[in-house]
Amino acid sequence: MFKAGNLYVTASTSGKMMKQLYIEWCEKVFFPQMNQHCICLADSWPTFADQEAMDVKPEELEYEMTTIPPKVTGQIQPLDVLCFRMYKGYFRKVSNWIFLNDQPVQVHHRDVVLKMHSLIYQQFTSPRFANLIAQAWHLSGYVDRSVEYVDPTEFCFQGLIGRCDYDNCERSLLLKCGWCKAPLCLAEVEFE
């Protein structure tokens, strides 16, 4: 199975987030990324409200959890309000490009799906797109100040023409890198 440094991959037999997976995620992914104080907006799913995850919280971390009421997640959860739509659009652009350019990649295979998520997450973490999260908090009603942001899908795919010129590659271009603006082909983002 493909392993990426920017993804934490695990699964349950049901395909749903179970209590033990949530505790494991808190311990291995969430808490190590937090400094001093954090606020967690949790979905109303009962697993997320379980306070046993606090047993693995570092002692020095001040932690506050707020549960989003049922049926309003899409209106007040910042990632749902703005970011996930763009993330899905980016994913669709990459997979459509693979189909339209008749690439030898099976987009439904687990390793390819993991590579796509790793690539998209890596691109979305570019400082160029940092205001996207800030604007999501504004649109969700948590902060008053609106900010200008760059849409990752528009930036990385609009106006992309020509061929890859990296090491005389000559392949069709897949995207423009959100970090360095370099035009990249499929081989350069390591899908093959």
Structure write-up:
Residues 10-138 form the DDE-1 domain. The chain has 192 residues and is mainly alpha-helical. It is built from seven helices and four strands; from the N terminus they run αβαβαααααββ. The strands form two sheets. A two-stranded parallel ribbon has the order 1-2.
Which percent bin holds the helix content? Answer: 40-55%
The number of strands is 4
What order do the SSEs take from the amino end to the carboxyl end, as H and E? HEHEHHHHHEE
Give start-end ranges of low-pLDDT stretches.
none
Rg is 19 Å
Q: Class by helix and strand content? A: mainly alpha
Q: In whole angstroms, how far apart are the ends?
A: 14 Å
Work out the count of structural domains.
Answer: 2
**Would you tell me the overall average pLDDT?**
91
Give a short account of the largest sheet.
2 strands, parallel
Strand content: 5-15%
Major sheet strand order = 1-2
Shape: globular
Please tally the helical runs, counting DSSP H or I stretches of 4 or more residues. Answer: 7
Give a short summary of the structure:
By secondary structure, this protein is mainly alpha-helical. The chain contains 7 helices and 4 strands.
Q: Which short descriptors sum up this protein?
A:
DDE-1 domain-containing protein, 192 residues, 7 helices, two-stranded antiparallel sheet, 2 domains, mainly alpha, DDE_SF_endonuclease_dom, 4 strands, nucleic acid binding, two-stranded parallel ribbon
